[in-house]
Amino acid sequence: MAGRFVPRTTAVPRRQAAVAQTSAAPLTRTWAPAGPLDLRLVLSPLRRGPADPCFRALRDGTFWRATRTPAGPGTLRLCAARDGGVAAAAWGPGAQWLLDGLPALLGAEDTPEVFRPRHRLVAETQRRRPGLRLLRTGLVMESLIPSILEQKVTTDEAYRAWRLLVRTYGTPAPGPADAAFGAYGLHVMPDARTWSLIPSWEWHRAGVDSKRSATVLRAVRVARRMEEAASMELPEAMARLQLIPGIGPWTAAETLQRSNGAADAVTVGDYHLPGIVGHALAGNRDAGDDEMLTLLEPYEGQRHRATRLILLSGHIPARRAPRMTPGDIARL
């Protein structure tokens, strides 16, 4: 009698092997920037929503970041030092890598001094925000995956998906378990292999449709090649990321603004940005990508910085249309 056929399955752990929490003394470093530095402004692009499992901004001015470095998971704590510099402490296998990259993370490789405002609004915002510098993490995948999750959905949907997937399949961050982090604590995002093993129903539970999940899966299969983009010039880095079907100019720019500190990586294809730039620079809230790029031509080489300053100006057109309605992939 023939045996019953049992389909082959791949077991997926609910969580990667945890990095042990430790009270051991962290590695430390103090770094003094050459000019004004606003930690909140510099680090804010890394935050994916108010409950981001990889990032915390505390009321006392301390910032915590958990990430996966080439040397392994690491946790970084940053705060202002008494002498005007930045005090950093790091835990985990990636601690030294994080401290070595601290100046780049905080904009040491940025060149705000070459920026020349061409509009009064931009000039006034630059004067009021002297501590703005463009960060550079040197890590592509940690920005690429959440950027893919943000494609064509509301920010609330994307933040929820990132939060659920990282908490379920990531690892507790190395270092102290601080009550200020909340019930779930800090987490390091999954490695490439773990992302690739997440079953379809878990993507569905997180509200991620098959198009976005398939794009993430294609990217993590060539994660090493994607990470190489962190050391490339902007045109080559944009081209490298867009070799992956499902990654277009919007996703590539959003990633490289963070991983490479790309001052000219202007975000095209955004639902709101063209109207914001058009309203600020030309009084046209109905501007599209083409008009936005034309208005930003005087800032060639620094177009991302120009849009950051426009967004920080607060000169945003009042909303006329209803907010985008969150999707329900259970109905698809």
Automatic annotation (TrEMBL):
Biological source species: Streptomyces argenteolus
User: What keywords would UniProt list here?
Assistant: DNA damage, DNA repair
Q: What SUPFAM superfamilies does UniProt report for this protein, alphabetically?
A: DNA-glycosylase
What's the name of the protein? DNA-3-methyladenine glycosylase family protein
